[in-house]
Amino acid sequence: MVDDYVNSEVCQSCAECCKAWWIYSDLKDDAIRASWLDTDLVSVNKVKDGLWKISFHIPCKQLLEKDGKYFCKAHKGLRPDYCRTYPMNFTEDSDKDMLEFEKRTCPILRKIS
Question: CA-to-CA distance for 36 and 103, rounded, in angstroms?
């Protein structure tokens, strides 16, 4: 079902997944060190005990915008698996707390789950 939405009008009007990059970490030291960086371009959110989302608010160099729509320069070329499968890699089978955090970013996940 998520497959139906990938690269849809919703994706092309949003692109939040390309305007920032994030990782989930279960390492408290990573979360602390990232939160101490002297920049507004990095944020750390506690997802639950023992899990943090570390976000880098830096857009992807492959992201293009034209006439209010977003496109990936590398869409048909070399792309990381994560980009090619997002948001399909977050489903009802995912950790429910991580899925809730992803819904804050992705309107497709909010729509289908």
Answer: 26
How far, CA to CA in Å, does 77 sit from each of 11, 60, 72, 80, 90?
18, 15, 10, 10, 23
The string of pLDDT tens digits covering residues 43-61 is 999 999 999 999 999 999 9
Residues 6+ away with beta carbon under 8 Å from 44 = 31, 34, 35, 52, 53, 54, 55
- For residue 87, give the amino acid letter: P
Three-state secondary structure along 4-46? HCCCCHHHHHHCHHHHCEEEEECCHHHHHHHHCCCCCCEEEEE
